[in-house]
Amino acid sequence: MNLKKQFMEGLLTQNPVLVQVLGMCSTMAITTSFFNGLGMGIAVLVILTLSNVIISLIRKIVPDKIRIAMFIVVIAGFVTMVDLLLQAFVPALSASLGVFIPLIVVNCIILGRAESFSYKNGVAASFFDGVFQGFGYTVVLLVMCIIREFLGAGTFGGGILAGGKGIQIFPDTYAVKMLTLPVGGFLVLGCLIAAMQWALSRSKK
Q: Which distant-in-sequence residues (6+ apart) come within 8 Å of 10 by Cβ?
């Protein structure tokens, strides 16, 4: 187990969004405010880590033919717990994220790591894989939220600061409001993926 390598893979070389290109729907849909990005990122990190640990623990007693069904049952259990906890303790976040919390059950990041890593590795390695992959996902969400919120509305910290409105950095009349729309998510994500691919290709050279 190489923690430094796992950390670098989760954040950079195998980043679930910018390199593996997974979880695109939620990434583009909810990254309009800092509050949404932080909440979704933490939810995925917790679910991914706990699912990885459980799947790694039971991998030797589950027949290979039903492994995908087993993955979904485990993930769905943790998604339900997180969804109910959000509804109980952070209802504003639950309402803002809406259907994207239940859809974590079929999120490609969770299923992908279950199939490619935790089903083949020990508990400790699977735990850190979940933490680092979830951290990498959260960082991308927050970067996208900051860019789209700042350039698209002129604010920072939407949903958290200044009574939920965010701190107004510059008048919204000068903002590129298109960035708060779905097309803005595509544009920002495309630019980030291009920047990451350029950086990785340059580092290899």
A: 16, 129, 131, 132, 133, 134, 135, 136
What tens digit of pLDDT does each residue of 38-87 get?
A: 999 999 999 999 999 999 999 999 898 999 999 999 999 999 999 999 99
Q: What are phi and psi of 158, to 5 degrees?
A: -60, 135
Tokens for 174, please give them.
Answer: 């000068």
In terms of Cβ atoms closer than 10 Å to its own Cβ (0-12, 13-18, 19+), residue 174 is exposed
pTM: 0.92
Q: By the 8 A CB rule, do 36 and 142 touch? A: no
Query: Contact 44/112 with Cβ under 8 angstroms?
Result: no
Rounded to whole angstroms, how far apart are CA atoms 62 and 60? 6
CB 50 within 8 A of CB 78: yes
Three-class SS string for the chain? CCHHHHHHHHHHHCCCCCCCCCCHHHHHHCCCCHHHHHHHHHHHHHHHHHHHHHHHHHCCCCCHHHHHHHHHHHHHHHHHHHHHHHHHHCHHHHHHHHHHCHHHHHCHHHHHHHHHHHCCCCHHHHHHHHHHHHHHHHHHHHHHHHHHHHHHHCEECCCCCHHHCCEECCCHHHCCHHHHCHHHHHHHHHHHHHHHHHHHHHHHC
